């Protein structure tokens, strides 16, 4: 179990690092826009991201 969790964490870090490495200007601009959003909008983005991840996990595991 811990090996799987560490693998998932490592993959997340690799994926999270792709955009700042390839297009740092676009990544910076995205964060600039994110800072201007309200808490509700950011929460909605987080909720949508979590639900998409859970849905993807469900289809991959079944």
How would you explain this protein's 3D organization?
This protein is mainly alpha-helical and 62 residues long. Helix content is 92%, strand content 0%. Helix 1 packs across helix 2. It is flat. The model has no long low-confidence stretch (mean pLDDT 93).
Task: Note the topology.
Blueprint: H1 2-22, H2 24-36, H3 39-61
Helix pairs in contact: 1-2
Brief digest:
With 62 residues, the chain is mostly helical. Helices cover 92% and strands 0% of the residues.
User: Termini separation (Å)?
Assistant: 18 Å
Question: What is the string of SSEs from the N terminus onward?
Answer: HHH
Number of helices, counting only DSSP H or I runs of 4 residues or more: 3
Helix content: over 70%
State which percent range the strand residues make up: under 5%
């Amino acid at each position: 179990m811990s090996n799987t969790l560490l693998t998932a964490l490592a993959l997340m870090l690799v994926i999270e690092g792709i955009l700042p490495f390839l297009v740092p200007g676009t990544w910076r601009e995205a964060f600039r826009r994110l800072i201007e959003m309200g808490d509700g909008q950011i929460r909605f983005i987080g909720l949508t991201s979590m639900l998409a991840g859970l849905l993807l996990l469900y289809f991959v595991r079944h």
